[in-house]
Specification:
single chain; mainly alpha
Length: 83
């Protein structure tokens, strides 16, 4: 059971890193993403670090603001379905 948990955490950390990378490529400060999504900056930071899991309600707010591509969106759905 612990191995599955570790794999899940790695997937979430990887997803968070991808979100942060896209945000940085768009030169969007965390503050701006927070304002546009209504998600507190502290929560966004923990999502990007993989500390908090990227649940669907967060994803539905973040993806459109960042214009995240469909392939990343599909990988998120796979991760969320395994929860």
């Amino acid at each position: 059971m612990e191995k599955i948990w570790a794999i899940d955490n790695e997937l979430y950390r990887s997803l968070g890193k991808q979100v942060r990378q896209i945000r940085n490529e768009k030169r969007m400060p965390l503050r701006e993403l927070s304002e546009k999504t209504g998600i507190p900056r502290s929560t966004l930071n923990t999502l990007e670090l993989g500390i908090v899991r990227m649940k669907e309600p967060y994803w539905e707010k973040i993806a459109p603001v960042l214009g995240i591509k469909k392939d990343l969106e599909v990988s998120v759905k796979i991760v969320m379905e395994n929860d």
